[in-house]
Amino acid sequence: MTTTTEQATDPDILCHGLVRIFSTEGVEVQALQGLDLRVERGDVVAIVGASGSGKSTLLNILSGLDRPTGGSTVVAGTDIGTMSRAERVRYQRHTVGFVWQQTSRNLLPYLTAAENIAVPLVLAGAKARAERVDELVALLGIEHCRDRRPDQMSGGEQQRTAIAVALANSPRVLLADEPTGELDDATSADVLEALRSASESLGVTVLIVTHDPTVSEHVRRTVQIRDGRTSTEVLRPTERDDSGAEVHVAEEFAVLDRTGRLQLPEDFVTALDLRDRVRLALETDHVGVWPDGVRPGNNGATTTADTGTQTDPPGTAEPDRPVEQAASSRPSRRELRDRKEGEDG
Ligand SMILES: Nc1ncnc2c1ncn2[C@@H]1O[C@H](COP(=O)(O)OP(=O)(O)O)[C@@H](O)[C@H]1O
Ligand SMILES: [Mg+2]
């Protein structure tokens, strides 16, 4: 078995420099261009990104349906780049569960919900199947659909049944590709909550892929994928205010890869008209980025990193503000434009 030695703290999904190139009729499409991703055990993470950004390609690789062109991917201790055919079958049956966007692709139309949930149990030769089906219909709140075929259920009920099917053999990781793509807003919220509570009660790691930006309201961590790479992340840690009520404070981070690359948010790039190359300067507590034509150190600023007394060029972040805070309260595009106009004039 292609299993790496596992520690309790190992993440459930770990991708390094993942590359997938499709070649069709001599044309190459780089769907994934060195993607890095780490998802901790039991976490619920959403991957968001525009259509064509590589989301499904990533999920197909993680589910063992497709093979990467390069890079490494370890899921629940299994190196999926080097699996044999038999290991792949076992991996798909026991390690990962999958929910597709098309409700019709998840369920067999001529079977009831209970029978659909029993299919993967039968294939895996599981015992105590009736008990497992009972547990799952209760967990997903679909007892009333037990004996209904998919065409007798709503879209949301079908997707909750699909989640039950995917969870039947107790996978470590649940992968869902646009699971709410065909649902209205209220039903989407329902299905996302079902995924979250399944993770909470079973400890399963959940990765949801979507182009719906509102998904971040339902998960603690949202990773943005742009042009086949993870670019930014939004974390929503739950904090308590003075009265003890739960408040969610969203913080945005840029993803830094192992070689030090990061992607600047698009509005930063446009606001300062950054292109081709930029100047960087290491400061005591942050890194400054300037357009090519602007020289850091003008206006009395020094850029020597060892004095600890340098000042910023006008318009940059206050020196003593932590990097993550600076990112979370990042200035609006308009503020940046105003600053730029101030400097130009
Ligand atoms: N089997 C394939 N053959 C050729 N190109 C593909 C194939 N699958 C995906 N692509 C291309 O890879 C890119 C990423 O696609 P995909 O992962 O489906 O994006 P998303 O799910 O984010 O919409 C797109 O440009 C798409 O056209
Ligand atoms: Mg897709």
Quick structural gist:
The protein is an alpha/beta fold and about 350 residues long. It is about 30% helix and about 25% strand.
Q: What's the structural blueprint in terms of helices and strands?
A:
Layout: E1 13-24, E2 27-39, E3 44-48, H1 55-62, E4 70-75, E5 78-79, H2 85-95, E6 96-99, H3 103-106, H4 113-123, H5 129-139, H6 155-167, E7 173-177, H7 185-202, E8 205-210, E9 221-226, E10 229-235, E11 238-240, E12 246-248, E13 251-254, H8 266-271, E14 278-282, E15 287-291, H9 323-328, H10 333-344
Parallel strand pairs: 3-8, 3-9, 6-7, 7-8
Antiparallel strand pairs: 1-2, 1-4, 4-5, 9-10, 10-13, 11-12, 14-15
User: What is the number of strand segments?
Assistant: 15
Order of helices and strands: EEEHEEHEHHHHEHEEEEEEHEEHH
Strand order of the largest sheet: 6-7-8-3-9-10-13
Q: Which regions contain 5 or more consecutive residues with pLDDT less than 50?
A: 302-329
Looking at CATH, the homologous superfamily of the largest domain is P-loop containing nucleotide triphosphate hydrolases
CATH class division of the largest domain: Alpha Beta
How many helices? Answer: 10
Ligand identities: adenosine-5'-diphosphate, magnesium ion
Task: Tell me the major beta sheet.
Answer: 7 strands, mixed
Number of domains: 2
Distance between the termini: 66 Å
- Helix-strand makeup class: alpha/beta
Mean pLDDT: 83
Q: Which percent range fits the helix content?
A: 25-40%
Radius of gyration: 24 Å
Principal-axes geometry comes out as globular
Explain what this protein looks like in three dimensions.
The protein is α/β, with parallel strands linked by helices. It has 2 domains: 13-240, P-loop containing nucleotide triphosphate hydrolases (Rossmann fold), CATH 3.40.50.300; 264-344, no CATH class. It is 29% helix and 25% strand. It contains 10 helices and 15 strands. The chain has helices at 55-62, 85-95, 103-106, 113-123, 129-139, 155-167, 185-202, 266-271, 323-328, 333-344; strands spanning 13-24, 27-39, 44-48, 70-75, 78-79, 96-99, 173-177, 205-210, 221-226, 229-235, 238-240, 246-248, 251-254, 278-282, 287-291. A 7-stranded mixed sheet has the order 6-7-8-3-9-10-13, sandwiched between helices. Strands 2-1-4-5 form a 4-stranded antiparallel sheet, covered by helices on one side. Helix 4 crosses helix 5 (129-139) and helix 4 (113-123) runs parallel beside helix 6 (155-167). The protein is globular and about 70 Å long. 33% of the residues are buried. Magnesium ion binds next to helix 1.
